[in-house]
Amino acid sequence: MLRYYSFDYGNCYQFNVNDTIQRVTYFPGVDHGLKIFKNSFYTFNPNISNKIDQDGMVVFVHNKSLREPSLSEGIFIKPGEMSYINVKRKYISKYPAPYSQCMEPDSFSSYLYDFILASGSLYRQQDCTNLCIQEQIIKECDCFFLRYKNHFNASIEPCLNLTQAQCVIDQLNMLNINECVSKYCPLECQSYEYELSLSSATNPTLNYFLNLPQNYKDIYASILELNNQSFTYDVFKSIYISMNIYYSSLDVEQVSETPKVVLSDLFVQIGASLGIFISFSVFTFFEFVEILFRIVYLLVSERKHKEERFKGKNNQVENDEPPPV
């Protein structure tokens, strides 16, 4: 289990990343998934406010070769429920330029692009653009933005005071992200996507709450009294977060792009269009060649006949000359 800090969500934990023993599953279904249970009651402190103004957790599922998940791919989990997260894997392979905007690893080079590949991480355009933004902030503000990783200068400080924060905001507003994409960060041709679907059931149940041992109820009530709260079923549910992350199928859906028109197809389409609009075909082409050959043959034959007639007249003139006196 790897712990790291997220600028947007606070403390985060990554499962099966850099672990000595990699957990795997060989069967699909709820019974063979990853079960996570969290009781936040014993870490409850009424004097400390949460970083975000909502209760629950956000879950990301991503390829372990990526450094961090994409923040746009999260799924939010409510407390007081057993959340079932169904995962489907999809592998996408796009055809490189000029058929699309993506680039093969060997056909492009930039210092940000090469930096990600050299780090052993799977290349992703989003990671590259984050590096581009961070580099610009470090250059102009002399500090690094906590939202993005700092891979360039380990000695530089984070942007914490108001002046630095305003500098970060100015750079984010001024930065031309299209320049980062066009010069340094092309779209990747191969990528994994994880489609998540969520269903849930109430957990813990009312029956479980009513049958709690009395000593547990006393502990809960005594802590809640510090924040002038009563020990009710709704409060009890709000401290439990449960989830089960599983594969509905171990199959991987593969989506591959191929050229719709290759060179041979292009010639076929041109020939078909010519045949429709001007009645031109391959056979017509050979007819033109035959006609051209006949014209050349006739011209050559005519010229040859003229030369032969000219030579015959010259011989006749020479024979008709009078003998010398």
What does this structure look like?
By secondary structure, the chain is α/β, with parallel strands linked by helices. The protein folds into three domains: 1-92 and 192-258, Acid-sensing ion channels like fold (Sandwich), CATH 2.60.470; 96-188, Helix Hairpins (Orthogonal Bundle), CATH 1.10.287; 263-313. Helix content is 37%, strand content 21%. The protein contains nine helices and ten strands. Strand 1 and strand 2 form a beta hairpin. Helix 2 packs across helix 3 (162-174).
Distance between the termini: 129 Å
So, the CATH homologous superfamily of the largest domain? Answer: Acid-sensing ion channels like domains
Q: So what's the CATH class of the largest domain? A: Mainly Beta
CATH topology of the largest domain: Acid-sensing ion channels like fold
- Characterize the main sheet: 4 strands, mixed
Order of SSEs: EEEEEEEHHHHEEHHHEHH
CATH architecture of the largest domain: Sandwich
Descriptors:
two-stranded antiparallel sheet, 3 domains, four-stranded mixed β-sheet, 9 helices, Acid-sensing ion channels like fold, 325 residues, alpha/beta
What's a quick, concise take on this entry?
This protein folds into 3 domains: 1-92 and 192-258, Sandwich (Acid-sensing ion channels like fold); 96-188, Helix Hairpins (Orthogonal Bundle), CATH 1.10.287; 263-313. Helix content is 37%, strand content 21%.
